[in-house]
Amino acid sequence: MFTKTNILDKLLTSICLMFFLIYANPLKAQIYVNNWVIKPSEEQKEKPLVYVDFWATWCAPCISSMPHTAGLEDRFGKDVLFVYISDEPETKIRSFLERKGYRFYSLSDTARTNFNAWNVESIPYAMLMNPQGTVIWHGRPGDLSPELLQKYIRRYGGQSGDPQRFIRIDYEPVYSSENISTDRINGKPIRYRQFPGEIPYACSKSAKNTICKGSLREITARTFGLEPYQVESNANISLEIEMPPLPENQQSNLLKKFLQKHWQIQQTQKQIERYVLTEKDTTTWLNRRLYRYADTPDQTLSLSDETFLTIDNATPRKMARILSQQTGIIFHYQGQNRNVYDWNIRIDTPSELLKYLRNELNFEVKAEKRELPIISIHKQN
Question: 341-346 and 202-205 as β-strands: parallel, antiparallel, unpaired?
Fold first, then answer.
């Protein structure tokens, strides 16, 4: 029989156990490595502590915190390895570091492996790892004070860091043994090790063939001349497709036959509510901090938090697609502008989003309901 004292003792024991499980077993961390922009030596990787800073060249708070962390590195670099991780291309990171005069050890993580592994949805964000690879501190870079860092150095200084804190990953594609072929087209299901998500759509052309990679949904949308939100599918796969270097309309006809052979396709009409975007005056965009880039037009990157969606290197049409995916509100770009820009869009509420598109980005935003064609593509029974 339990007394009140027994129950209280058991309750306190349970609370202590929960506290131990949460706080006495901290997260084990690895840094997933593929592409060093500036690489530390193997000896430097064995320093007792590793500081990891998630940042981007477009992120003003990230840049403003760099003098602070550079000062920490000057003082404590003997015991701490400082590593900066951005999801931008190597060329953009290198150009920024050279322009600013920094020599930070930096990683280009365009597949966002480290961001996804640590659920980094907003930047700047930093974490500190001990010699065993356990996260002992995390927060905003500016919140790591010299006094706090010195405290950790006194505790862990002199120890040798575990090399397994740095894990090299394989970006090579993994192909299925299943071939999906039809007249003049050869297709293979494809994924990447470490990356279970959909592969962004991309094509490469040569005199002998055209090879396109992308999700089934994106391939279907492009083949039928639709937007991705006009395609419904229960087959969440990505494909690599090899076909002859034919004119676009002939390739579309071949792809339609290819898709119809291997999947059930139905075409219907559906009323869709969407917002149509048309730019009024793009000459004001540069004055509103909308930057145009042409160095890596095919490398589109995006990052969002609860307030802002930032999209790097995207045409207005691609921006509208990503904005639709991130917010669940369908946007359709109606215009001919194919220039590539960096976008920073406020998305915290629908009303603020629409106001931002109108007032800050100078779009004409028109709400409409339209009957649009819908493609349903499903696995063959």
Answer: unpaired
pTM: 0.51
Q: Which residues pair with 333 in a beta bridge?
A: 277
Using CA atoms, how far apart are residues 210 and 1, in angstroms rounded to an integer? 77
CA dihedral (11, 15, 16, 20) in degrees, to 10, reads: 150
**DSSP string covering 29-67:** --EEES-EEE---TTGGGSSEEEEEE--TT-HHHHHHHH
- pLDDT digits over 226-268, tens only? 988 899 987 778 888 999 988 888 888 999 999 999 999 999 9
Other C-beta atoms within 10 Å of 81: how many? 23
Domains, the chain, ordered by start: 26-168 (3.40.30.10), 173-263 (no CATH), 281-361 (no CATH)
Structure tokens at 150: 């010195």
What is the rounded distance in angstroms from the CA atom of residue 44 to the CA atom of residue 23? 29
